[in-house]
Amino acid sequence: STPRSLSMSTMDVDSSDPMSSSSSPEEPQDVGVSLANLIFKMSNPSCNLSEKKSASLEVLSLTKERGLSRLYASLSSNADFKELVPPLDAKLLKNMQDAEEVKMTELDAAIVDARENLGDTDVRAAVLAKALYVCEHGTREEADKALDEVDALTSATGQKMDLVFTRLKLALRYGDLTQVGKLLHDNTALFASGGDWERKNRLKVYEAVHKMAVRKFSDAAQLFLDAIATFTCTELLDFPTLVYYTVVTCVCALDRPTIKTRVMDSPEVRTVIGEQPSLQTL
């Protein structure tokens, strides 16, 4: 199905783990999250036709670049997008499917090799690599199953936290706020038991986005304010978007003195508010 819009114990993290939060100082936005946001624009009645067409061009470019056969087929057959998405190119779809099949064969072979010739760390890395690929290219059910297999091989707290972030991104991509809330609730003890400040700060952003989506604006505002000074959750949203959400939720939920001291006088807000005229009017 088409995604819908709206991831100190660093010693236990394998430095080769592509989900490790210490792997990059600024992780690019998750491809699935980016696509979900763009697809939301394509169907959003508040967006004009020009904005929808621009979003559709980005979606098609990303879909072809990443070889996402299921998403391409879904978009091409969606009657709501017939003015935005060209008719399905059967040859292109077949090429995508063939490439995905080849990649899955390679990933499965890597898992077999790791189990026969390498250690537990390498086995987990190979299973994780396949799971991340399935999250991007497979169905949601296939992604959940693949992540379950990684979870069964994971004992380190930091790596367990990173799996939670991956599951949160997956749920957000499909607009499943119930699952997002369940994941946040079920893993409260995990994040309270350990983990570095960076992961905990990232978790606040996921919590804030969820609270905002379910209209608990006061809770969302406090979480955004707590996260803004040390924001690193770039896989979910960029800093200007974080500031936008912070200002909007604070205006909805907080009293004027608090807004003055924590929002209007915030150096983080001031660095980007000049680029967002809509926020200046607030």
Topology record:
Layout: H1 31-43, H2 49-66, H3 69-76, H4 90-117, H5 120-137, H6 140-152, H7 157-173, H8 177-186, H9 188-193, H10 197-213, H11 217-228, H12 239-253, H13 256-264, H14 267-273, H15 277-281
Characterize the structure shown.
The chain has 282 residues and is mainly α. The protein contains 15 helices and no strands. It has helices at 31-43, 49-66, 69-76, 90-117, 120-137, 140-152, 157-173, 177-186, 188-193, 197-213, 217-228, 239-253, 256-264, 267-273, 277-281. Helix 4 (90-117) runs antiparallel to helix 5 and helix 7 packs antiparallel against helix 8. Mean pLDDT is 89; it is low at 1-18 and 20-24.
Query: How far apart lie the N and C ends?
Result: 38 Å
* Arithmetic mean of pLDDT: 89
Runs in which pLDDT lies below 50 for 5 or more consecutive residues are: 1-18, 20-24
Q: Beta-strand percentage?
A: under 5%
Outline the biggest β-sheet. Answer: none
> Care to count the β-strands?
0
Q: Rough shape?
A: flat
List the helices and strands in order: HHHHHHHHHHHHHHH
Q: Determine Rg (CA atoms, Å).
A: 20 Å
Number of helices: 15
Global structural class: mainly alpha
